[in-house]
Amino acid sequence: MRKLMTLAALCTLSGALYAQTAPAPAATKPVKEKKICRQEDVTGSIMMARTCHTKEEWARIDAENARNAQHILGRDRGPAGNAATHQQ
Question: Which helix (H) or strand (E) holds 64?
Fold first, then answer.
């Protein structure tokens, strides 16, 4: 009888220890960022293309497009009024 009680206590303790050391599944699961999709014109096609990126990726793309547009329009002049030049 004493051996049975000891065995039951060991089983209970080992189960409790296992429950404490097991990682929580929600804590280790990475959070997926929501994708935002846009319809874009494709040169040479009558069909629109669907492009999906995260909010941060779209912000980077939009900022780069704005810089390119300013450069093409010649509005990217430096502080002295001279146009910025690219050295290649």
Answer: helix 55-72
Please give the Cα distance from 46 to 51 (Å, whole number): 16
Backbone φ, ψ for residue 65 (5° rounding): -65, -40
| Pairing verdict, β 36-41 and 48-53 | antiparallel
Residue for token digits 């547009």? 69
- Separation CA 43–CA 45 (nearest Å): 6
**36: which residues sit within 8 A by CB, 6+ positions away?**
52, 53, 54, 55, 58
Sign of CA dihedral 33, 37, 40, 44: positive
- pLDDT tens across 6-52, in order? 666 666 666 655 555 555 566 677 888 899 999 999 999 999 999 99
Structure confidence at residue 88 as a pLDDT band (50, 70, 90): very low
Token code pair at residue 62: 């939009």
